[in-house]
Amino acid sequence: MNTEPRPAQSARASESGVPGPAPRIVRTVAELKTASRKLLEAAGRVGEEGAEPVSLGLVPTMGALHSGHATLIRQARAENDVVVVTVFVNRLQFDDPADYERYPRTLDADAALAGEAGADVVFAPEEHEVYPDGTPRVLVSAGDLGARFEGRSRPGHFDGMLAVVAKLLHYGNPEAATAVPTPYRAYFGQKDAQQLAIVQRLVKDLAYPVEIRPVPIVRAEDGLALSSRNQFLTDEDREAALVLSRALFLMKERAESRLPLQPDDAVALIASEPRVELDYFEIVDPETLQVLAFNCQDTPFTGTALALVAARVGSVRLIDNMPLTDGVR
Ligand code: AMP
Known about the structure:
Elements: E1 24-26, H1 29-43, E2 56-61, H2 67-79, E3 82-87, H3 97-102, H4 107-117, E4 121-123, H5 127-130, H6 150-153, H7 157-172, H8 174-178, E5 184-189, H9 193-205, E6 211-215, H10 235-256, H11 263-271, E7 276-284, E8 304-313, E9 316-325
Parallel strand pairs: 1-4, 2-3, 2-5, 3-4, 5-6
Antiparallel strand pairs: 7-8, 8-9
This protein binds adenosine monophosphate.
């Protein structure tokens, strides 16, 4: 596993605020490998003794890119020589077929945004490229981490997510393109905290040769966490949805002041908004996602935790979360 990433050797125009060249869109794994190899070779002396290793950053997405995704891509740009963004709406992780059908597909706009943020390549495979035999018969299980919270409300979601992430991490592996050890990082947003925890376990438990780089949540100015699904909110629903981030910020303030969290107050705040139907609000351990029974009610908050929330607002299911610290870390 790599240690702290160093700044990439090849600075691109996008880092100076000027949009870089449009990224190349590739559709097949073979094209992706060829494109990655050429870019890595252009960036440095791949595999030569004594040469600084060149690196690759992978940013998996489902498209409909917004400035949250752009932050992941920019971080990948800053830390690697070559940046690959994947755009694939993965049917297997949708428990609701209607949600899958209406998921926005905006590849041209995605490629433009990815390019501006610093991507070199956009890998946008068709379904048969990723699942040539249809639904895979062998699946990686998210285990107990996948059974709670989002997994309980969306059965099969995390196994479906792992089905594609397990493959994308192989497809993007620069070592497969260059046949020499090449630093490899993959970028995941803390917006999907449970997904991030599960992907970190995938990499650890199945020994993937990639470093997972978590990226903090990007929010709109009013606090709403950016999401590709926000575009389906009516103006009233969007306003109502703000109660979720307010409830999370309430927990953050209390944690930083080392006050008892009293999450019931957050739940009551959410319940005061009739357009919002709460699914869960929990304070958990950031790695194991076990609910923290202590630390919440009457005792002052100490240490670290993660507040998780999910709710339906109108026709849209939203998730959000907030890392909590006692302020002395
Ligand atoms: P998606 O396309 O929704 O599957 O998201 C692709 C990646 O972008 C995931 O790692 C998400 O966690 C991340 N992401 C989505 N929205 C945000 C956000 N508001 N802030 C940070 N990361 C995000």
